[in-house]
Every structure is written in C-alpha cells, then in structure tokens.
Specification:
Shape: elongated
Number of strands: 18
CATH topology of the largest domain: Rossmann fold
Distance between the termini: 81 Å
Number of helices: 22
Strand order of the largest sheet: 11-14-17-10-18
CATH architecture of the largest domain: 3-Layer(aba) Sandwich
Number of domains: 2
CATH superfamily of the largest domain: P-loop containing nucleotide triphosphate hydrolases
Helix content: 25-40%
Strand content: 15-25%
Length: 499
C-alpha cells in the first residue's frame, strides 16, 4: 500500500480553502473512488483522469485506488480538481515523485486526451494558496495571466498532463497538445463616456457629482428620453480609480463568473441587469455551484437599475441587506457563500407605466390606480436607503438645438470627486470609514448637535410626525456632510457652475 498527497483549492464565494488530495493504492479488486463530499461533476473526474492518464502513456495501476479530499466536511464542486487527483494517483502508483508534488498546488480540468483546460476562479484560488504559504502553483496555460496577478508565488502554466508529469520526475514524452485558450472572452473595456455630452441637465450633473463624492445611492425619476440612463452610465467615469487591492477584489469576482482576467482594470465596474432579472441573477446562486450575481459583480463600482419599477418586488427588496452591510450571503443546501457587495446604487424609473404623467404637452393614458401602484413598486425601506432623489425633465428643443451643455467634463468632475473624498478621508482619519455614506447615524447625530436648533427644527418635526424615519434623518445628515465639502478658490474660478 502506498499513499501520496498534493493540494487543490475549494471555493465558497470568493474565499478559497486548501484541500489536501490524498491517493491510496491497495492490493484489492481494481476500483477508483473519490470521497470527501464531491459533487456530480467532481465525481465524474474518475473517467476523465483515467482516460487522460492512458492517453499520455501514464497508466494507473490496476488496483484499488481511493482518493480522499480533505477536509471531508467541506463541499467541493467543479472539474478544477482533475489535475490534483491525477497527480496524486500517479504518485501513489510510483509514476511521479511523491516529494515533488507534496508542496505544490494543482488546478485545472483534464480533457480525455490529456490536455489541461482552463477553469473559473483561478485568481481567488491562487490567492488562497499564497495566503496559506505555498510557493508553487500549476495552472492551465489559459489561466496563466490571471494567476500571475498574485504576487509572491511561482506560477507554472501547463498545456497537458504529460508536461506536469515531466516536471514531477516522470520519464514520458511530452505530447504536442495545443494549449486550450481561456475559458471565456475577456471583458471588453466600456466605451469612454463623458459628462460633456450631457445637454441641459445642470442640476442633474451637480447631483451626480455630489453622489459620487460621498458614495451616496441615487434615484433618478422622469419621463423617457430625459437622460436618466445617459447620466447613470457616466458615473463610473467620474469615480476615483480603484486601488490595487480593490482591483484585485473585482478581478477575483470576474474570475468566479468565468471571465478571462488578463490584467487588472482600475475602472470601477458598471452592472446594468435587465428588469426581467430574477432574484438569483441579482444576489447570486446556482444549482451546482454558487456564482456571484449582479450585486457582487458591481462591487467597488455602480449597480444601475434602469426601469426599476419593472423589476420584481422580491428582487428589489433583496438589495436592502447588502446596501447596509456591504456583503451578500447566499445560502444553498449544504453550503453558504459570502460575496462582497459594496456598490453604489443608481435607480431610474418613469413617473407612470406610459411615462407621460406630469409631462407638459404629453398625454398620460394610465388610470390613477395604475399610477399609484407604479410609484410604490419601490418599497419604503428600499427608498429609505437611497440618499439622493432627483427628478429629471426632458430637454427643450431650444436647448437641444443650441447644444446647451453644462461645461462640465468627466475629467473635471473626477478631480472634484477625488478632492472631496480626500477631505472626507482626512475628516474621518482614525476611523474605519472613508466616505460620508459609510458613517453610522449615531456618530453623525453626535457631531451635528452643534447645528443651531432652528436650522434642525424642520428635520426634527418631520421625525416626530413620522414622515421621516431615523434612517432618513441620518441620510440627510450624511448628504449635508458631502454638500458642505467646499472647492478650492482656484477650482471655483475654473468651474463657476459649482458655486
């Protein structure tokens, strides 16, 4: 009887857990079993490993082979364990060096001809290996660029099982297998959108900059064609670039969704799901493995819900918890995955189903009951978490023809946002908060006791009458902090619109 061990990674959400892959060979009836709570696709690795070894002249011994994935209580999914199972099995049979594989992490799916196929989630898996103190990881050739984004660990890309076997001391010819390309096409960089394209919406542009400066959630209401979508899609372009750690977080989530990550993108992501999206499409889920939804894919960026009133009520209310905590917990049978979800929410909706209610010169054909129902599709608790509410009107013909632009470009707006965030960071230095939207209400109310009582009186009366909740009260204080951020004299002169 001989035993060999190597390592792989099991993912639950964006968290990777090291899995020890043990292979044991005993002198009994030939058999091949995988134990340790594998799912169906992992259970099918028996046939993939058997054929891949045979087709690379690395036959497994004709004895009872048992592969254990430890810890056994941790659910394991996917075909990314194929390479580690094959390597451990071959080492147990004496074809590979047991010592060579003992401190190496193996990731990848095997084809029947021995080729190594890319798998999703390589970036968080390599992160987990580096945190656990491993020095070397072997990944499919198609995942090389993604794996090399993690510093402090040696990445060895391989195109086939025979190439991995040679590295571990096997005497076998390396098959000329064509490398398998990345599992998915890399995400295209979004088109550069500039605030200079916005015509006749000066108040909306100001509100967008304030929301970006404080990280406030925002709701844009107005008739179709008023420019709500145009404004929302320009928000990522005025946000500060992601730091290296933030870009790695975003890239890890993209890796889990199957995107090919070739380099770090410092542009904040923009997610805009269709209004027919299900709850699982927003919060994440799946049948075989838990994948991140639109909420997590918008982490460190913007989640834009166009035609928000057309989303299901359940899907909209599912966002209430991540808006508060910055994380989303997805529970399925036997597994719970935690995904980061710190995003900026932009909601756009029409005033009524036909979109013409309250529009000058337009006729609304909606019954009054339909208008009331439509306006209440966003629940009170969800509205209570949105700091900025703005009505956007249609641009007049005269403004459109003369090109009545605000004079504000994304470059200038981004500089103003960065300056405001720097001041907020200095204000909250020594605390865990970086933006005004993150500060707890209790701290804000304590600081704002210095506000004169007569200035605070309308807010206090609204709270006492019940027309304003305590969360809404805190929302006003947060927005006041952001609104009180002053521009420097030089920038006020350069941008007179902001005075």
């Amino acid at each position: 009887m001989k035993t060999a061990r190597t390592w792989a990674v099991a993912l639950t959400g964006v968290d990777g857990h090291m899995v020890e892959v043990e292979a044991d060979i005993s002198n009994q009836t030939p058999d091949f079993k995988i134990i340790g709570l594998p799912d169906k696709s992992l259970g099918e690795a028996v046939q993939r490993v058997h054929n891949a070894c045979k087709n690379t002249a690395l036959d497994l011994p004709r004895r009872r082979l048992t592969v254990n994935l430890s810890p056994a209580s941790l659910p394991k999914q996917g075909a990314g364990f194929d390479l580690s199972i094959a390597v451990a099995a071959l080492a147990a049979g004496g074809a590979l060096s047991s010592r060579s594989i003992a401190r190496v992490v193996h990731l990848g799916e095997l084809g029947l001809d021995g080729r190594l196929r890319p798998v999703p989630g390589v970036l968080p898996s390599v992160f987990a290996a580096a945190r656990a103190g491993f020095d070397t990881v072997i990944v499919p050739w198609g995942n090389e660029a993604e794996a090399r984004l993690v510093p402090g660990i040696e990445v060895r890309p391989a195109a086939s099982l025979s190439q991995v076997a040679v590295w571990h001391g096997a005497e076998v010819d390396v098959l000329e297998a064509d490398p398998v390309a990345a599992a998915a096409v890399a995400r295209e960089r979004p088109e550069e959108l500039d605030l200079a394209d916005v015509v006749g919406q000066e108040n909306a542009v100001r509100a967008l900059i304030v929301a970006a400066a404080g990280g406030h959630h925002m709701m844009l209401s107005g008739p179709p064609g008023a420019g709500k979508t145009m404004l929302a899609r320009r928000l990522p372009g005025i946000l500060p670039s992601l730091t290296e750690d933030e870009a790695l977080e975003v890239a890890s989530i993209r890796s889990l969704t199957g995107d090919s990550v070739q380099a770090l993108d410092v542009m904040p992501p923009l997610e805009s799901p269709h209004h027919s999206a299900s709850v699982a499409a927003l919060v994440g889920g799946g049948t075989r493995s838990v994948r991140p939804g639109a909420i997590s894919r918008a982490h460190r960026g913007v989640l834009f819900l166009d035609e928000a009133a057309e989303f299901s009520r359940v899907a909209l209310d599912a966002m209430r918890q991540p808006l508060e905590s910055g994380v989303i917990e997805v529970s399925r049978a036997g597994i719970t995955a935690l995904f980061p979800a710190r995003f900026q929410l932009i909601v756009a909706l029409n005033p009524c189903p036909c979109g013409n209610y309250g529009v000058r010169g337009a006729e609304c054909v909606c019954p009054s009951l339909a208008i009331r129902r439509y306006s209440t599709r966003l629940s009170g608790p969800l509205r209570d978490r949105i700091d900025v509410e703005l009505h956007v009107s249609r641009v007049s013909a005269s403004q459109a023809m003369v090109g009545d632009r605000t004079g504000m470009t994304s470059e200038i707006a981004r500089a103003l946002v960065i300056e405001a965030r720097e001041r907020a960071g200095a204000r909250w230095r020594g605390t865990p908060w970086l933006r005004n939207s993150e500060v707890p209400g209790a701290r804000l109310r304590q600081l704002d006791l210095r506000i004169p009582a007569d200035a605070r009186a309308p807010l206090d009366r609204a709270l006492e009458r019940g027309t304003l909740t305590l969360r809404g009260y805190d929302r006003v204080l947060r927005l006041r902090k952001t609104g009180h951020s002053r521009l420097s004299r030089r920038k006020r002169l350069a941008a007179p619109w902001a005075q």
